[in-house]
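Weekly modeling sync, notes
Attendees: S.R. (lead), two postdocs, one rotation student

Agenda item 3: backlog of single-chain predictions. S.R. asked that every request posted to the team notebook include the full sequence so nobody has to chase files. The rotation student volunteered to paste the first one in as an example of the format we agreed on. Action items at the bottom.

Example entry:
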Amino acid sequence: MKLHELIKIATRPKKRLGRGLGSGKGKTGGRGTKGQKARGKMPLSFTGSLALYKKLPLKKGKGNLKPATKKILLDIAKLDIFKDKTIVDLEKLIETSIISEKQAKRGVKILNKGKLSRVLTVKLPVSASAWKKIEKLGGKVEYD
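Predicted structure, as returned to the notebook:
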């Protein structure tokens, strides 16, 4: 049998406390001498003073943390799959599987990244530089 063939043991044997001076854990069994912590069972969280969670202020009405709801950022190059003079809105993006319905609930914003060669009417939030690019090609952005 070689070292790499040995069976791996997941658990260590428990410490045998109070089994003679030669064991290294005899007499007081690693608890020091006298005092409350040396006698009986003590919780692990015991510090001798007020517990940390009791020291912290009570914050009322915060409730559960809500996940961040940031908009989905979409590159303008992904809109190049549409034909000329197409109206691009959330329904159209879901229909062409660019975004899912779950993502649509978070909202979408179009950024100026990549090339666009189509004349489109966009009814979504658009960055300023993407807005200029769409209008430069002869398209429109109709978003309030």
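Discussion: group reviewed the output briefly. The chain has a mean pLDDT of 87.
Action items: rotation student to repeat for the remaining queue; S.R. to check formatting next week.
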